[in-house]
């Protein structure tokens, strides 16, 4: 029989990124957390955490994290059937891409969170790599661009987000005076969300350009738009996020009529219980653009 206090310690260490912060979260000392992790490793006969160079679960730790997350969700269903049990609010750790979080996500899940008393722990991750978090047992569900489900999980298509290559009119006039040519792209500064963000590269590939280009790195959706509005570069942005400035002429497409479409998929464990089923149904009602 698994000792769920030990699994809780493992999950909290991974979520908090350290033993000390995990102890604060659980109201325990750092030493107590270390002892629980050690007890789990002794029981398994192998490590569940890699301490260096970065703290992350081992191949043995990942299925334990996945199991613990699913058990938490199933316990939530049991509490509804047996109200006399502990009524702690359910908490769901989810990986979401920044653009969804900045646009449609809150409206899609807000009512459900209020009705179910659901608390969400959001991990902001690029849509191309978010699934890795779920595979590693770090999150219970994931919103990403991959249509391939991992073992034991389901994948539901939600729709497509459309990205436009936008910049200020002054930027376009200065950096692309002859239009979107390969020579212009070689020197025109772009704005990239993070090291795993491939939207800019895909857009340029559509234009037939696959060379190097200068770029600002800005891991913030709000900051991303601010940099573009300040004329610092052009970037791929969903229209729903910048409609106000596009309609006002403050932001324009550097290649009118060309967009980049990115499909989004919702991944979750097959035996996650009613709460995730309700969340999935809410997400499927979203009309992306």
From TrEMBL:
Pfam families linked to this entry: HTH_1 (PF00126), LysR_substrate (PF03466)
Keywords tagged on the record: DNA-binding, Transcription, Transcription regulation
Domain HTH lysR-type per the UniProt entry, residue ranges: 2-58
Domain of life of the source: Bacteria
Matching InterPro entries: ArgP, LTTR, LysR_HTH_N, LysR_subst-bd, WH-like_DNA-bd_sf, WH_DNA-bd_sf
Family (UniProt): Belongs to the LysR transcriptional regulatory family.
Matching NCBIfam families: argP, PRK03635.1, PRK13348.1
Name this protein carries in UniProt: LysR family transcriptional regulator ArgP
